[in-house]
Amino acid sequence: MNEILQTIKQFCVKVWNIELFGSVTIGSLFLLLILFASVIIVERIVQKQLIRRFLSRTKLQPSLQFGLSRIIGYTLIAVGFYVAFQLVGVDLSSLAIIAASLGVGVGFGLQNIINNFVSGIIILAERPISIGDRIEVAGVAGRVTKIQLRSTTVVTNDNITMIVPNADFISNTVTNWSHGDPKVRIRVPVGVAYGSDLKLLQQLLLEAAAEHPKALRDPTPVVLFTEFGDSSLNFELGVWTQEMTATPIHFTSEMNFIIEQKLRENGIEIPFPQRDLHVRSGLPATQGLSGEV
């Protein structure tokens, strides 16, 4: 029995000491994987404790707290991986040549990933967008819920999660409704029939803006006469609100309901395009048949 155990032990030691490349053995590679996993676990714990116990007690904005915790976490992973290589005995200088040769080939294949990675660092450093901001970029509109080094998670008003590459925030024009002052002016177009009482219309539109609970009183709403249309006199009701960062479509819809009710109650017509068709009676005079004298 002892001989069998001794044989198994010798076999395990032999396998453990098999060299893969350079001074790296199967045993050291296995130990390196354990150290890598330990570094990642420690980084997750430190990052959570850093946000909950330290950064949450500061006066920093939540978005800045998140960005600092991510940067500290990535730094901890980089340092931890370097220490793990040193503990296992892997000479990083010997890997420099291999890394350089692989970097040329892999670099072409990972251009997009590296671009998104660098863009993620720029976003965390400059903070053009933050957690909780309502943004529009590359046809995607919604609220930012997570910023990672490769991509950013955006949740739309329909509760659809969109994964947007970070490079889109650097290379494209980004509309950030929450950046700086969250107040925006929403323009609600209104068309009324020719001959309507415009003074009454102006009064009703201002009353509609005053009745909406999420319309701001300061700056004051304004009614603009935009144009003489083909079928209507066109106006715009400019209303200031902070709802563009939350539910802009709901705000505009509720405002349209209020305006429509007021116009209907006061007899102001909302026209639709019409066309008049004129039919002429009689037939055109016919000419004689060809060949007739």
Describe the structure.
The chain is α+β, with helices and mostly antiparallel strands and 293 residues long. The chain has three domains: 15-109, Helix Hairpins, CATH 1.10.287; 128-176, SH3 type barrels (Roll); 184-265, Alpha-Beta Plaits, CATH 3.30.70. Helix content is 48%, strand content 18%. The chain has helices at 2-16, 26-54, 62-88, 94-109, 111-126, 166-171, 198-211, 248-265, and strands at residues 19-21, 24-25, 134-137, 140-147, 151-155, 161-165, 175-176, 184-192, 222-228, 233-241. The strands form three sheets. It has a five-stranded antiparallel sheet. The protein has a three-stranded antiparallel sheet with strand order 8-10-9, with helices on one face. A hairpin with a 3-residue loop joins β4 (140-147) and β5 (151-155). α2 (26-54) packs antiparallel against α3. The chain is elongated, with a radius of gyration of 34 Å. The protein starts with a helix and ends in a 28-residue tail after the last helix. 15% of the residues are buried.
List the defining traits of the structure above.
3-stranded antiparallel β-sheet, Alpha-Beta Plaits, 293 residues, 10 strands, alpha+beta
Number of strands: 10
Q: Supply the number of helical segments.
A: 8
Distance between the termini: 134 Å
Strand content: 15-25%
Write the layout of secondary structure elements.
Elements: H1 2-16, E1 19-21, E2 24-25, H2 26-54, H3 62-88, H4 94-109, H5 111-126, E3 134-137, E4 140-147, E5 151-155, E6 161-165, H6 166-171, E7 175-176, E8 184-192, H7 198-211, E9 222-228, E10 233-241, H8 248-265
Antiparallel strand pairs: 1-2, 3-4, 3-7, 4-5, 5-6, 8-10, 9-10
